[in-house]
Specification:
The chain is mainly α and 180 residues long. The protein contains 6 helices and 2 strands. A two-stranded antiparallel sheet has the order 1-2. The protein is globular, with a radius of gyration of 16 Å. It starts with 15 loop residues before the first helix and ends with a strand.
Length: 180
């Protein structure tokens, strides 16, 4: 689908062809075509991995997970969760804990208890050599403050947002600025 180097520019920004593919995948998601969106996002995630962009790959795997979860496809949701969390554990293990805890709660909430239990076991296995577990206490993020409603995903590309201050956040994937 994409040629070598077509996904990202020299500075890591997403290229036009990949942006169009991402926009298409997000449109499928918005149109309720979750299975198709999940497939397209999973393909983008694999391409990001091929081009050695782990942060982008993790974001796309996470978005594909969300699509498959909405499609009520527990197997594919679990597969994408594994990929996203696996990448996060390798680069940012404490962030991986937060992502995994959220995904596990979502899987359980969608009725995928067995998948959630399998994910807990696998992630704890990956975290154990680092002296961590899913039970590791984390400081509360701005998203968890009861008096605030911060969006958790970029409104343009769907990437997970990490709030660094109380007023605004820049999407690490597409550069869109969102405000509290």
């Amino acid at each position: 689908m994409f040629g070598l180097g077509a996904l990202f520019g020299a500075g890591g920004e997403i290229a036009d062809e990949a942006r169009k593919a991402l926009d298409h995948a997000n449109q499928l998601f918005d149109d309720g075509k979750y299975e198709e969106a999940g497939d397209a996002l999973a393909e983008l995630a694999e391409l990001a991995e091929t081009h050695q962009r782990p942060k982008r790959a993790a974001q796309m795997h996470h978005r594909a997970y969300q699509a498959y979860l909405k499609a009520n496809d527990g197997d594919n949701a679990l597969a994408q969760a594994r990929e996203a969390i696996g990448i996060a554990v390798a680069g940012r293990p404490r962030q991986a804990i937060q992502i995994a805890q959220q995904m596990i709660a979502e899987l359980r909430g969608a009725g995928f208890k067995e998948e959630a239990d399998a994910l807990i076991k696998e992630i704890n296995g990956k975290l154990a050599p680092l002296g961590l577990s899913l039970a590791t206490a984390e400081a509360a993020s701005p998203e968890s403050k009861p008096d605030r409603k911060l969006i958790s995903n970029c409104p343009k590309c769907g990437a997970r947002l990490r709030w660094m201050d109380d007023d605004e956040v820049e999407c690490e994937y597409c550069g869109t600025i969102s405000y509290a």
